[in-house]
Each structure stands twice: as structure tokens, then as C-alpha cells.
Amino acid sequence: DIQLTQSPSSLSASVGDRVTITCRASRSINNNLHWYQQKPGNAPKLLMYAASTLQSGVPSRFSGSGSGTDFTLTISSLQSEDFATYYCQQSYSGPLYTFGQGTKLEI
Amino acid sequence: EEQLVESGGGLVQPGGSLRLSCAASEFSLSDYNMNWVRQAPGQGLEWVSFFSASSGTIKYADSVKGRFTISRDNAKNSLYLQLNSLRAEDTAVYYCARLKMGAFEMWGQGTVVTVSS
Q1: Which of A78, B28, B45, B68 has the least CB density, counted as fewest CB within 10 Å?
Q2: What value does the mean pLDDT of chain B take?
Q3: Interchain proximity B101–A49, CB inside 8 Å
Q4: What is the pLDDT of residue B45?
Q5: Rounded Cα distance, B11 and B53, in Å
Q6: pLDDT tens sequence across B11-61
Q7: By C-alpha distance, which of B30, B55, B33 is closest to B105?
Q8: Is residue B32 a contact partner of residue B100, using CB atoms and an 8 Å limit?
Q9: B42 touches chain A (CB under 8 A)
Q10: What is residue B101's DSSP assignment?
Q11: What is the pLDDT of residue B43?
């Protein structure tokens, strides 16, 4: 099984900050890595697919990079609505999918 | 507007059964690979099961294999998950999710399953 490890598990930041979340795969997954945002009580929302492609309607302050085993999600200037939990997910071993454990972004 | 709506969750005793439904609107489920994903209280996301558009491939997470069954009714444009031999650790919000290019691009609002005596 492919394991995904996110770091940090939690992060405190302020509006306007630049924030980076990392996702590391236990083996190479090429660019088969996707990012989600989840707010309390809501379903996850797809932000980024194929490591660096922004989902339609997602603000351009979100960006993704990486390939192989190491990936990052960057928020260039935090807005109040960005405080949420973020998950990465791999589809290299699809249709057996795995998620990272999540990164909680707090004020 | 395209959407997914889950139903069928509830409180069930350990060892019991439940059938979850996911109804699709404004698109045909048979055109997409569909999945169930769950989230235990306060925990992360766990993929549960996959149903291919062609109906040719069905997959399960090891944690539910042999207990859960995924199916689809094209006439009702609905996806189902039959949950048998339920355990306390199956307590979670269950989401159905549409897959595109390996990513879960559309999610329902979820249905809550609680396994407790």
C-alpha cells in the first residue's frame, strides 16, 4: 500500500501569511496526487488535481507542485475562509486510493 | 445543477446491517467511476469502495472487504452501499464521490452511520 504523510499535522497562521503544506508518498506516484479542503461539518472540496492543476473555481492563491514522492500545497496569502483542514490523496494505485492524515490550518 | 445526495444512515447495533443510497441529479452515474469514502468522528478520510462506469471493476478497502457491497441502479441513477456485520469502528460519515482523473471532484453531503449498542 502507498502511504501518504502530511506535515505539519497542524499549523497556526495569520491572514496574509504564505503557507506551505507538504505531502510525502512512501514510493513514487508520479503526479497522481490531489489536494482537498474540508471545513467543519462540510464535505471535502477538491482544490488541485494532478499535483499542480487548479480545479475550476478555486482561487489562484492556491498552488501545487511536486512529482514522484514529494508534493506541496501553497497558499500565497491566507484569507479568513482558508482556515480549514487540508488532505492530500493519491490515485497512482487506483482504484485503491489513500489519503494523507490531514493538516489543520488554524488562526 | 449536478449533485449527489446520500441517505440511509442511522443508528444500528453491532453486527447489524444498513443500506446507504446515493442519488445523482443532472448527470448519469453510469458515465463516471463512483466511490464511497468515509470519515470517522474527528478523524481523516478513508476510501471505502469503487464502482467503475462500465460496471466491470469493483474494489473495496481491506477494512470492509467481505462485509460491504457496492452496487448501482442505472434506472434510478443511484449508487448503493450495503453494510453488513457492522462494527463500532464503522461509525462514520459516509460520502459518495464522483471520480475524474483520479481525483474526487464531486461529493455528496454525507450520511451518518453510528454503530452502537
Answers
A1: B28
A2: 96
A3: yes
A4: 98
A5: 31
A6: 999 999 999 999 999 999 999 999 999 999 999 999 999 999 887 799 999
A7: B33
A8: yes
A9: no
A10: T
A11: 97
Minimal CA separation from B75 to chain A, in Å: 25
Q: How close, in Å, is residue A9 to chain B by CA atoms?
A: 11
Q: How many contiguous H segments (helices) and E segments (strands) does chain A have?
A: 0, 11
Place of cell 468522528: B41
Report how many Cβ contacts below 8 Å link chain A to chain B.
63
For the segment A67-71, the average pLDDT, to the nearest whole number, is 98
A46/B95 CB distance under 8 A: no
Q: Provide, as residue numbers in chain A, all residues whose Cβ is less than 8 Å from the Cβ of B44.
A: 87, 99-102
B60–chain A Cβ distance below 8 A for any pair: no
Please indicate whether, in this complex, the C-beta atoms of B44 and A100 are within 8 angstroms of each other: yes
Band (pLDDT 50/70/90 cuts) for residue A107 is: confident
Instruction: Give the torsion through C-alpha atoms of A73, A18, B46, B75, to 10 deg.
Output: -70
C-beta pairs of B10-16 under 8 Å, 24+ apart in sequence:
B10/B112, B10/B113, B10/B114, B11/B114, B11/B116, B12/B86, B12/B113, B12/B114, B12/B115, B13/B86, B13/B115, B13/B116, B13/B117, B14/B86, B14/B87, B14/B88, B14/B115, B14/B116, B14/B117, B15/B85, B15/B86, B16/B86, B16/B115
